[in-house]
């Protein structure tokens, strides 16, 4: 028995001709970085590092341009990776992420002029790093191909068991 695709017109708004179905795709990338939480009451106040895992979830319509290399996709996964690497991961990978007001650690890192240091305007918790990642990447992906594409969610794993999510308003619980 052959499977027949449903009528594509069943998924269109008859007034606007817009597709009513939005799909999500997620690309995962990993990077290593150091940080510290200056006022933490436990071990996290010490200099340490993590193997972070970043998940980028995009929401959009499927590209339907016949003959296009990304026809049938929301966005090519390799392009998702390329943009994330260029706009975030390359800067953070094997860097020390330091809070701008952490004077002691900044002074220490400045004694190593060749050290890869990224100064951020928030304490580098998983939550704040996920928020910064979302802020940086939203403008990169939103409407990238003109097919209702937008960054829907960023998940940043600090450890395999601990992560922070930043979710765009309007991204429904069923989509998470």
Short description:
The chain is an alpha/beta fold and 176 residues long.
Percent range of helical residues:
10-25%
Assembly form of the protein: single chain
Main sheet, how many strands, which sense, barrel?
6 strands, mixed
Whole-number tally of structural domains: 1
Number of strands: 6
By secondary-structure content and strand pairing, the structural class works out as: alpha/beta
Gross geometry: elongated
CATH architectural grouping: 2-Layer Sandwich
Reading side by side through the largest sheet, how are the strands ordered? 4-3-1-2-5-6
Task: Explain this structure.
With 176 residues, the chain is of the alpha/beta class. The chain has one domain: 6-pyruvoyl tetrahydropterin synthase/QueD (Tetrahydropterin Synthase, Chain A), CATH 3.30.479.10. The chain has helices at 77-92, 103-110, 126-141; strands at 23-35, 48-60, 95-99, 117-120, 150-159, 162-167. Strands 4-3-1-2-5-6 form a six-stranded mixed beta sheet. Strand 3 (95-99), helix 2 (103-110) and strand 4 form a beta-alpha-beta unit. The longest helix has 16 residues, at 77-92. It is elongated, with a radius of gyration of 20 Å.
Give structural attributes.
176 residues, alpha/beta, Tetrahydropterin Synthase, Chain A, 3 helices, 6 strands, 29% strand
């Amino acid at each position: 028995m052959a499977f027949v695709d449903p009528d594509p017109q069943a998924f269109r708004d008859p007034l606007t001709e817009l597709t009513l179905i939005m799909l999500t795709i997620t690309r995962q990338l990993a990077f290593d970085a150091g940080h510290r939480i200056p006022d933490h009451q436990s071990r996290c106040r010490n200099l340490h590092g993590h193997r972070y895992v970043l998940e980028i979830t995009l929401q959009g319509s499927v590209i339907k341009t016949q003959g296009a290399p990304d026809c049938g996709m929301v966005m090519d996964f390799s392009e998702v990776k390329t943009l994330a690497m260029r706009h975030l991961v390359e800067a953070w990978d094997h860097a020390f992420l330091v809070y701008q007001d952490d004077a002691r650690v900044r002074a220490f890192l400045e004694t190593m002029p060749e050290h890869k240091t990224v100064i951020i305007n928030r304490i580098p918790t998983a939550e704040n790093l996920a928020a910064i990642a979302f802020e940086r990447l939203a403008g990169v992906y939103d409407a990238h191909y003109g097919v209702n594409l937008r960054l829907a969610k960023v998940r940043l794993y600090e450890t395999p068991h601990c992560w922070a999510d930043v979710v765009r308003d309007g991204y429904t619980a069923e989509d998470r």
